[in-house]
Every structure is written in structure tokens, then in C-alpha cells.
Amino acid sequence: MFKIGSIFIPVTNIENAAAWYEKYLGAKKIDSWGDGAGFYLPIGSTQLALVRVESVQPTEFITKERQKNSYYNFVVDDIEATHQHFKNNNVLTTEIDDFGGMKCFDFFDLDGNPFSVVNEVEGSPFHSDSIRKKQ
């Protein structure tokens, strides 16, 4: 009945952010409006919306263990290649962490918004194939 339609990302400069998301994530512009612009990614149906804000806004929360956590993540097929792509282009990233097969790292956009990148693990209850079976 429900699916995620769009993820809204606060940015201080729409034009610079749009160019950044197009270059580093392969986002394609759908349309723009007053203080925003919508994009789609080459894979999946969830859209990204960049919304202009006056000052940097937090896009993460703190867990009870005092760790920072992104509100959402991106799934990729080849996490090492994705990490190297960002490193080669001087995009700030964390190192790749391995959690028993699942790997992840964070990267940061021009406003310092953190985003997690993860790979899917075959057999995991969170793998997209497992979810499709439950749907």
C-alpha cells in the first residue's frame, strides 16, 4: 500500500548541490521548483529532492550508544568500487566497516550531510530478495 516516494535533503545551494549529486551519484534531474529540485537515480524508484535551506540542517541522529546514524542509506552492488569512486573524486568518506559480511561506509555531500552506503548480503533477512518474498 505504501512505498517511499522521495527523500528530502536540505542544501544551502541548489545549483552546486544539483551538480554534485549528478556528478557523484549519477542523479538525473526531473524538474525544479522555487526552492527545490527533484532527481531520480539510475536504479530504483525512490526520488531525491534537494530543498534549499538558509543554514546547514542535521540529517542524522544520535543513538543511545552516542553513535551518529544516517536516516537512510544507499545500497550498491560493489561497495569497494563505490568507495574508491568517492575517494578518487575527493569526496569525504569514512573507511569501509565489515559487520560479518555486510559492509558499509559513510560519505558527505557539500553541506556535510552524511549518507551511508551498504552492500546487500545474500541470505540476510534484509536482502532485497528476502523482502520481495515477504511482500
Summarize the entry for a quick read:
With 135 residues, the chain is of the alpha+beta class.
Fill in the keyword field for this structure.
2,3-Dihydroxybiphenyl 1,2-Dioxygenase, domain 1; 4-stranded mixed β-sheet; 2 domains; 135 residues; alpha+beta; 10 strands; globular; single chain
Structure characterization notes:
The structure is a single chain. By secondary structure, the chain is α+β, with helices and mostly antiparallel strands. The protein has 2 domains: 1-55, 2,3-Dihydroxybiphenyl 1,2-Dioxygenase, domain 1 (Roll), CATH 3.10.180; 58-135, no CATH class. 21% of the residues lie in helices and 36% in strands. It has 3 helices and 10 strands. It has helices at residues 14-25, 79-88, 128-134, and strands at 6-11, 28-33, 36-40, 47-52, 60-62, 68-70, 73-76, 97-99, 102-108, 114-119. The protein has a 4-stranded mixed β-sheet with strand order 1-4-3-2, with helices on one face. It has a 4-stranded mixed β-sheet with strand order 7-10-9-8, with helices on one face. A hairpin with a 2-residue loop joins strand 8 and strand 9. The longest helix has 12 residues, at 14-25. It is globular, with a radius of gyration of 16 Å. The mean pLDDT is 89.
Major sheet: order of its strands? 1-4-3-2
State the helix count. 3
Structural class: alpha+beta
H/E element order: EHEEEEEEHEEEH
Terminal residue distance = 11 Å
Break the fold down into its secondary structure elements and pairings.
Layout: E1 6-11, H1 14-25, E2 28-33, E3 36-40, E4 47-52, E5 60-62, E6 68-70, E7 73-76, H2 79-88, E8 97-99, E9 102-108, E10 114-119, H3 128-134
Parallel strand pairs: 1-4, 7-10
Antiparallel strand pairs: 2-3, 3-4, 5-6, 8-9, 9-10
